[in-house]
């Protein structure tokens, strides 16, 4: 077990509740792209035909026979990557132009950008920096707890930087600073159910390598958030003991247990509770599997204040039919968000997101895929249930090219 792997896994697990990710098209979670030394540029072009049964994200029994459409999607992309002896750099752009067959007023771009750099300064010290931004047509595409699903445009931006330092052969420390911004295509309004805001977070992770398979340590994060319309910012402290264990060359387990503390504000009294996270992963060849659970407090960019977030996720990718050219990919994420504010009435949210893909890759540069995805959410009140189903086919072409 390499210490850098331990730190990366711990950071990813600790960020589950706060990370913003987004995509309009359904993408396979296939194995990461491998790069040769030097510069590599990878253009991508894709085409999809999709049937969507709830384009407006209305609640159940609202205009159900007049709220569906067929959508043609074109999604260009470009990836630029550099691999050197001590430095790695990556940047990418991807977009999706949505062309509605009937409701053409909904036509728009969905765009995402990212850039990241990692450098090994010495045998003991690495540093990294990452940034990303996205423009999305609806809030059900934002992977963020405490957010009601609406057909409202969203803009997200995030940045992260940190240092990893190894103290000898057994101990390592990582410290990072993260920033996150979320905004919606509407005027700021304290009565709105889509507020937006900012989060600044400091994270510190220590690991001690007990043996080749086991590592123990501690994680601490301090998160300070501002939600549009709230009277003041609020602060969340999370401290956990952590364990990472390689069950076999293919299976690995990570977990953490501790406490989360919310400082008091004008609308919320001080609160504390348990914080948990567990994850089980398997990687073998081109197959992968993961299942995980986390519990903590997070800011609510939807209704304001904070929520208690519980999240369960399962996903796997594997070849089928005994051939490396055929594959299937599935993912399910369930979130349970309970509001923590005292003076302002908020609604709990139960959210489900799932997708399934069956694909054929006759050559490394082209994929043909059929997909199905569903999002579902309820606020546990009359008329508060909505769902969105999408089914379709897509063709994706992508070919890495060396830059001399």
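^ Assign residues to that structure.
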């Amino acid at each position: 077990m390499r210490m850098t792997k331990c730190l990366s896994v711990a950071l990813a697990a600790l960020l589950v509740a706060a990370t913003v990710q987004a995509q309009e098209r359904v993408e396979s979670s296939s194995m990461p792209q491998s790069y040769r030394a030097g510069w590599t540029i990878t253009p991508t072009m894709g085409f999809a035909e999709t049937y969507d049964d709830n384009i407006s994200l209305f609640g159940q029994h609202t205009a159900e026979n007049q709220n569906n459409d067929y959508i043609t999607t074109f999604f260009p992309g470009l990836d630029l990557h550099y691999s050197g002896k001590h430095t790695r750099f990556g940047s990418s752009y991807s977009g999706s132009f949505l062309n509605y067959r009937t409701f053409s007023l909904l036509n728009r771009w969905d765009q995402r950008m990212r850039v990241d750099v990692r450098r090994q300064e010495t045998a003991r010290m690495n540093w990294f920096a990452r940034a990303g931004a996205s423009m999305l047509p609806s809030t059900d595409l934002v992977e963020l707890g405490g957010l009601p699903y609406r057909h409202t445009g969203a803009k997200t931006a995030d940045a992260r930087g940190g240092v990893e330092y190894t103290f000898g052969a057994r101990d390592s420390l990582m410290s990072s600073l993260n920033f996150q911004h979320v905004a919606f295509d509407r005027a700021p309004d304290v009565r709105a159910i889509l507020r937006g805001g900012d989060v600044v977070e400091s994270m510190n992770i220590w690991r001690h390598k007990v043996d080749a398979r086991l590592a123990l340590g501690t994680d601490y994060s301090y998160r300070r958030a501002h939600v549009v319309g709230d009277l003041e910012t609020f602060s969340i402290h999370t401290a956990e003991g952590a364990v990472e264990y390689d069950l076999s060359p293919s299976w690995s387990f990570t977990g953490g247990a501790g406490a989360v503390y919310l400082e008091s504000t004008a609308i919320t009294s001080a609160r504390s509770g348990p914080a948990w996270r567990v994850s089980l992963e398997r990687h073998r060849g081109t197959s992968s599997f993961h299942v995980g659970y986390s519990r903590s407090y997070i800011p609510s960019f939807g209704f304001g204040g904070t929520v208690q977030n519980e999240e369960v996720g399962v996903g796997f990718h594997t070849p089928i039919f005994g051939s490396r050219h055929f594959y299937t990919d599935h993912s399910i994420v369930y979130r349970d968000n309970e509001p923590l504010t005292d003076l302002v009435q908020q609604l709990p949210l139960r959210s489900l997101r799932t997708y399934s893909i069956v694909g054929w890759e006759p050559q490394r540069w082209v994929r043909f895929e059929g997909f199905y995805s569903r999002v579902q959410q309820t606020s546990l009140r009359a008329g508060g249930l909505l769902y969105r189903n999408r089914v379709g086919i897509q063709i994706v072409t992508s070919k890495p090219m060396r830059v001399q």
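The helical segments are 3-14.
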